[in-house]
Write a structure and sequence with these properties.
The protein is mainly beta. The chain has helices spanning 47-50, 55-61, 335-339, 343-346, 353-370, 376-386; strands at residues 3-6, 13-15, 17-19, 26-28, 33-38, 94-101, 109-119, 131-137, 156-163, 169-177, 181-182, 188-189, 207-208, 216-217, 221-227, 234-236, 244-245, 257-261, 269-277, 288-289, 292-301, 318-320, 324-330, 387-393, 400-406. The strands form five sheets. It has a nine-stranded mixed beta sheet. A hairpin with a 3-residue loop joins β22 and β23. The longest helix is centred in the C-terminal third of the chain and has 18 residues, at 353-370. It starts with a strand and ends in a 7-residue tail after the last strand. It comes from Bradyrhizobium canariense.
């Protein structure tokens, strides 16, 4: 076993997509461990607190009229008459990787163990050592067309500070309404429509003394984590799918083990979209987006060894903790295969919790029948009385429902 560190830099991140064409940033063997740094793509909502003085963050977010450190930001084309920039913003998350796994082949299962997670402290002289994040009530949020106060519609950015002195929690520092921002290429962004645009704080009005009696318990986790799919060379980081991706479940934190079906040789694992806290549904559009560093262990389960195990036939992500198993249902289990050439944009027109719930039910039913040997009638009874289904997210186009079954159900006398 070896343990290596993968820091963030323009050479070790890819922005807004999973890809089987990107050269691996790191290659490991089964059983190896890695410390991987991740950055939030919302750090420029407050440059001073989340980027300034941080060499890694500054190198990734560098963008002037003369130089853009990370040009492609999304799964779209890289040149042409763009409105929002290279990649056209189809995909937004900063991902570190890919990490290739030696010997991984389609049909195998990659287990990713999250051993630890740590916040990335500010390097700014004014805020050194403190940790910050950004929450967006965004135009893609479930609430956006259901506002009751003026002005409407509006997008609101709330900056939080993460207190790690005791039981970790987040407290609001200030918020502001998004105003049109002009990027270094001269393109005006009237809404939050392209990742990494630096907010000019001279153009916004801060509202302080907000959520004064509120402390949000921290749930450090990675919103986007998974493998490269096989269906396209560049796949948007926004909709989750059968190889994982933007699942946005706060349970994918320290102590969790995620299982992903391998779709391409090498698996190509990437991680990002780090969160300090999030509720089920991620209703407004984002969590508290912050930068985190994680310690991971990778275990490859070969296809030939899966028979008779809980991983036999697994063709979707699965979460295991010491307490439970969770399964993720989506509007489309594999939207890339189901919706054809325009799947990455078309999926937003099909978002459905009904379909996601049915997918989660089917996946959990299969698990109970094949792994625990229950009949269908037994499985359905147990699902009704002992399983918990919840709305994972309603903001990632391919909406999600998680189904969870607790392990202690199988240990009762």
């Amino acid at each position: 076993m070896k343990h290596v560190t993968l820091p963030v830099s323009p050479k070790t991140v890819h922005w807004g997509y999973f890809s089987k064409k990107v050269a691996p940033a790191l290659t490991l063997r089964s059983g190896d461990r890695a410390t991987i740094e991740t950055l939030t793509h919302h750090a420029n909502d407050d440059y001073e607190r989340m980027i300034q003085g941080d060499p890694g963050a500054e190198s990734v977010f560098q963008w002037t009229r003369e130089h853009k450190a990370v040009g492609r930001r999304g799964s779209g084309p890289t040149e042409g008459p763009f409105i929002r920039g290279a990649g056209e913003g189809i995909g937004v998350h900063l991902l570190t990787g890919p990490v290739a796994i030696e010997g991984a082949e389609p049909g195998d299962i990659l287990e990713v163990r999250i051993l630890d997670i740590r916040p990335r402290p500010s390097c700014s002289a004014c805020h050194a050592g403190r940790c910050f994040g950004s929450n967006i009530a965004a135009n893609w949020g479930f609430h956006y067309h259901d506002l009751i106060e003026e002005p409407k519609p509006r997008e609101v950015v709330t900056i939080f500070e993460l207190d790690t002195s005791g039981e970790p929690c987040a407290k609001a520092v200030y918020n502001y309404v998004w105003t049109p921002q002009t990027d270094p290429d001269g393109i005006v962004h009237p809404t939050i429509d392209y990742p990494g645009v630096r907010v000019d704080h001279a153009t916004i009005k801060k509202r302080e003394n907000i959520l004064t009696s509120v402390r949000v318990p921290a749930r450090l986790h990675f919103g986007t984590m998974g493998l490269a799919p096989s269906e396209a060379d560049f796949v948007s980081s926004i909709p989750p799918s059968y190889t994982g991706g933007n699942i946005d479940d706060w349970r994918i934190g320290k102590g969790a083990r995620m299982f992903y079906p391998v779709a391409i040789p090498g698996a190509y694992f990437s991680v990002g979209d780090p969160h300090a806290a999030q509720g089920d549904s991620e209703l407004g559009g984002t969590a508290i987006e912050t930068s985190l560093t994680g310690d991971f262990e990778f275990v490859l389960h070969k296809k030939a060894d899966l028979a008779g195990t809980s991983l036999e036939g697994l063709d979707h992500p699965m979460l295991e903790t010491d307490q439970a198993w969770s399964f993720y249902g989506f509007t489309y289990p594999n939207y890339l295969a189901a919706l054809g050439a325009d799947a990455q944009t078309e999926i937003a027109n099909h978002s459905s919790l009904d379909r996601a719930m049915r997918d989660a039910f089917r996946k959990l039913r299969r698990f109970l029948m094949t792994v625990h040997g229950l009949s269908e009638d037994e499985a359905i009874s147990l699902l009704s009385v002992g399983a918990d289904f919840g709305v994972t997210q309603v903001v990632d186009a391919n909406w999600g429902v998680h189904g969870t079954i607790r392990k202690n159900i199988f240990r009762c006398d």
